[in-house]
Write a structure and sequence with these properties.
This protein has 74 residues and is mainly α. The protein has three helices and no strands.
Length: 74
């Protein structure tokens, strides 16, 4: 049961990272279209943050850091 849980968690992580990448690309394309059409965009910092690429290695490092912290508090 534990092995199956690990596989599902790994798959969920991969799907989440792929979704994040695809949404980032869509937001970047939308921004490029607005620029090309001369449409002023709001300087919304949240939207700017969403347009930044998420690096899978950063996500994995954070997961590892949190697991280590949890292990050390036991």
């Amino acid at each position: 049961m534990g092995e199956e849980f690990e596989r599902r968690a790994d798959l969920d992580l991969h799907i989440g990272l792929l979704t994040e990448h695809e949404l980032t690309c869509v937001l970047q394309m939308q921004d490029a279209i607005q620029d090309k059409m001369g449409i002023a965009s709001d300087e919304n910092s949240e939207l700017t943050d969403l347009e930044m690429e998420t690096k899978p290695e950063d996500v994995l490092a954070e997961i590892h850091r949190l697991q280590q912290r949890e292990y050390n508090t036991r």
